[in-house]
């Protein structure tokens, strides 16, 4: 098991990325790492101690928001998150 898992985001394009379990939203979030697509994140390719730049902002619908930075395997939730982990930093859980 690892904290980040590779995924294919599109069957018709070379759109690849990584997924991780967000403990604040209790669901998976995804980042896209192919620079020919936007948005695109820089990822250090370490599945157990991931670092991603820039921040990840996920609109959850109905006014929900998850906004975070991932550094060395930890997720720092920014204060504009609408879930109970806003303002906290925790280790990203492992998952398949």
Description:
There is one protein chain. This protein is mainly beta. The chain has one domain (5-91). It is 0% helix and 46% strand. It contains no helices and 8 strands. It has a 5-stranded antiparallel beta sheet with strand order 4-5-6-7-8, with no helix packed on it. Strands 1-2-3 form a 3-stranded antiparallel beta sheet, with no helix packed on it. A hairpin with a 2-residue loop joins strand 5 (52-61) and strand 6. The radius of gyration is 13 Å and the shape is globular. The chain starts with a strand and ends in a 5-residue tail after the last strand. The model has no long low-confidence stretch (mean pLDDT 91).
Distinctive features:
mainly beta; 46% strand; 0% helix
Tell me briefly what this model is.
The chain has 96 residues and is mainly beta.
Main sheet strand line-up = 4-5-6-7-8
Alpha plus pi helix count: 0
CA radius of gyration is 13 Å
Shape: globular
Mean pLDDT, all residues: 91
Specify the oligomeric state: single chain
**Which range best describes the helical content: under 10%, 10-25%, 25-40%, 40-55%, 55-70% or over 70%?**
under 10%
Distance between the amino and carboxyl termini: 6 Å
